[in-house]
Specification:
The protein contains 13 helices and seven strands. It is globular and about 55 Å long.
Length: 386
């Protein structure tokens, strides 16, 4: 079934007439992979090599030599892997689950390694948004209301207040730093919409759904290309700049998908599917997501894991056409097979490190936590898809 047919079957007129990605010939692994065991190994490697277990926060390099001063927003994605593991094992391994719950408490006590404030506020809007999303996941996993309260307070006081109307239209500004406040970025608006949607999910306050729609409408009408499904990086001085990145494709998919679930408007689903198709067909080489980083010690090494997180939710949604879901699941599975069998040297466990290029193992230079988080996110996703 083509993507056009899949959407037409939902009674949608405005369809995407693109080619579906077909990874079916790439699904054979060189050996049988136990994804739960693989995820356990990836989680332990992340925690043992990169976490300060007295603080629950993560250091940039495995040997502790890197400067952690600006190591903030990635903390959210690293803790998300711990939450993934917690949710997977809490009913079967109470002792380890309790340890992971303690790490969440410590992470919160130290404000996710926030380098500029005793709370979660930050000059960069997207940095706070990722922290808020992780706090909400911690609340969802544990029921600890303090996490939700901090998430709500941070969003209400320091995120949605950065919505401005200027020559770029609306949109959340990227940063309050001088010279950066004129930039409206996909990286601040995609996660911003997700924050509002998740707060609506757990508070049922209509203002959050209204704000999510507002943020998403700006993003969709400016940086999103409805013909291709690509999401540009930013708009500055009324001019669109920068090409698509897996970070922005992923958060656009996530916010569109959640809006579809909350409203039933199939336009959101169409846009989510288009964005996913663009990633699979135009941002991959031989079926493997492109490496968007020039080095392992780069925030770009986190980007692929962001796409994986939100594409996984889309692939798991049983209300969406089964052929599309299989396509997306197979794409991620192919990436995971190559990453786990070719892109990591497991001979020195737990000193095993993912590379930012999932097709080749790391070298000693690559012992940074950003690619480790993306790799572990991918492997954890396999435990949900299989």
């Amino acid at each position: 079934m083509t993507a056009a047919a899949a959407l037409a079957s939902c009674g949608v007129d405005d369809v995407y007439y693109g080619e579906m990605y077909d990874p079916s010939s790439l699904m054979d692994a060189p050996y049988q992979i136990d994804w739960d065991a693989a995820a356990d190994s990836a989680d332990v490697a992340l925690i043992d090599n990169f976490m300060d277990k007295d603080r629950g926060t993560f250091q940039l390099s495995a040997d502790g030599s890197a400067n952690n001063q600006f190591n903030y927003w990635g903390q959210a994605h690293a803790m998300d892997v711990v939450i993934d593991a917690y949710l997977r094992i809490k009913d079967t391994d109470a002792e380890r689950a309790a340890t992971y719950e303690k790490y969440m408490e410590l992470w919160h006590q130290h404000r996710g390694n926030n380098y500029s404030s005793p709370d979660y506020r930050n000059d960069f809007t997207d940095d706070m948004e990722w922290i808020v999303l992780t706090l909400i996941r911690m609340y969802e996993a544990t029921g600890e209301k303090d996490y939700l309260d901090y998430a709500k307070d941070t969003y209400d006081q320091h995120i949605i207040t950065r919505w401005t109307v200027d020559e770029n239209g609306g949109g959340l500004i990227w940063s309050i730093e001088s010279g950066r406040e004129i930039s409206k970025n996909a990286c601040s608006n995609g996660p911003g919409a997700l924050c509002a949607l998740r707060l609506y999910e757990f508070t049922q306050e209509e203002k959050y759904l209204d704000q999510a729609k507002m943020i998403y409408e700006w993003l969709s009408s400016t940086l999103y290309d409805s013909e291709t499904g690509s999401v540009a990086d930013n708009m500055k001085n009324g001019v669109i700049n920068g090409g698509a990145l897996s970070y922005n494709q992923g958060t656009f998919i996530g916010s569109a998908h959640m809006l579809y679930n909350f409203t039933g408007d199939k336009r959101y689903l169409i846009e989510a599917m288009r964005a996913a198709e663009y990633q699979m067909n135009n941002m991959s080489t031989d079926g493997i997501m492109n490496s968007e980083a020039s080095s392992a010690n780069s925030d770009n090494s986190l980007f692929k894991g962001i796409f994986i997180r939100y594409a996984t939710l889309l692939a798991l949604d049983e209300n969406i056409d089964a052929s599309f879901r299989k396509e997306l699941s197979d794409f991620m599975t192919h990436n995971a097979i190559v990453c786990w069998t070719q892109g990591i040297d497991k001979s020195s466990y737990p000193a095993i490190f993912f590379n930012y290029d999932w097709t080749v193992p790391y070298t000693d230079y690559y012992k940074y936590y950003q690619p480790q988080v993306s790799g572990a996110t991918l492997i954890e996703a396999m435990t949900r898809l299989h």
